[in-house]
From TrEMBL:
Keywords: Actin-binding, Coiled coil, Cytoplasm, Cytoskeleton, Phosphoprotein, Repeat, WD repeat
SUPFAM superfamilies listed in its UniProt record: WD40 repeat-like (SSF50978)
Chain positions of WD repeats: 77-111, 127-169, 171-212
Function field: Regulates leading edge dynamics and cell motility in fibroblasts. May be involved in cytokinesis and signal transduction.
Coiled-coil segments: 434-468
Protein family per UniProt: Belongs to the WD repeat coronin family.
InterPro entries from the UniProt entry: Coronin (IPR015505), DUF1899 (IPR015048), WD40/YVTN_repeat-like_dom_sf (IPR015943), WD40_repeat_CS (IPR019775), WD40_repeat_dom_sf (IPR036322), WD40_rpt (IPR001680)
Protein's name in the database: Coronin
Domain DUF1899: 4-68
Amino acid sequence: MLRRVVRQSKFRHVFGQAVRNDQSYDDIRVSRVTWDSSFCAVNPKFVAIIIEASGGGAFLVLPLQKTGRIDKVYPTVCGHTGPVLDIDWCPHNDHVIASGSEDCTVMVWQIPENGLETPLSEPVVMLEGHSKRVGIVSWHPTARNVLLSAGCDNQIIVWNVGTGQAMINLEDMHPDVIFSVSWSRNGNLLCTACKDKKVRVIDPRKQKIVAEKDKAHEGARPMRAIFLADGNIFTTGFSRMSERQLALWKSDNMDEPICVQEMDTSNGVLLPFYDPDTNVVYLCGKGDSSIRYFEITDEAPFVHYLSTFSTKEPQRGMGYMPKRGLDVNKCEIARFYKLHERKCEPIIMTVPRKSDLFQDDLYPDTAGPDPALEADEWFAGKNGGPILISLKDGYVSAKNRDLKVVKTNTLETKAATKAENTPTVQKHVTPKPSVKMEDKLEEVLREFKSLRDRVILQDRRIARLEEQVAKVAM
């Protein structure tokens, strides 16, 4: 009889753990809007949560350390006149967030360094171009100030946030509601899932469909599609018998899937979260009480089930922390912010390791906050992969650039009233002495960290030696 060999993987024993109650964010009225969005967005400084608001749309922005009960009068971002449907933090500036709403607008906000002290109702930029509600907003992964929005008018608009202009309008490609939009790793292609059951790969600058697959999942319920680091596409959806499915496709030839797996018969839409550094996909179902995770490899069956993290409470939404916000000293490979009816609960995914040293295999260089391109370069046809940073010493962020608004000269344009409000993003030039001070501070922090690590190791060594002495004495 052949003995079954268990597949080797460093992520086989990943375990999830919810934080203590006092480290959650309590007493939050999470939005009840019936839209399949994650309702939560996270970065290394803030967690943003879409909430119930009377007379318009609002979302909370909390500094990560502000845990515990959140006061009912805590200031919100409240400029929309309709419910907010989606929010997304800018990957190149931890103080800038975009929001899409039922009021057909997209707004870009600048959050103060220490969070909100008063309600924020004036966006830095308001982007108007959709005729129906805006359900998806997504920043370009490598080009500064490029933002995508998709609305229920079945069109996708790519904006230059620096000038407030709609640069690309993809309006004849989707005959029905767009369920999801995902940028490729370097942002040269888009992948969309639509209510017409088609998954499309689109070149936004050439405004053409590169590849498409009809009935990627045959069920009528919403699909999701995301790009993987190697250019393949991962989709979640439903079979004809309403079973939840996941599938893997080659983006250049979508005739047949690389693999299809059926999961269960639950009716919650699966939201995929992907880590391009480790090739692990986490699936969180709306209304589920579990997070399943899978590793994607080149060997059959290609999508390998790892494990499931389960709790008693169902999730209404989920936020996913970028890699540079994780604690590398605890071998943390993912952190989720799970939305309940009245609270947000962080969940930490950890790989158990005995060593206290930095784990290179768990933390390859990851995408940093510096953009590879400016908006004008990308719109002109240039591509650039993400600029990678090492997490060896823990990520220390440099000072963020502010979004500075400069009114244009009304004499230079005919549309005077429009032009006066056109904001442009200027690069904040940091004076040279402060750059030197920052470098010196980083150097001191690095030295402090290495000394602290050395002291911890010596403490442990002393404890071990004391134990040995005690045994010998006995």
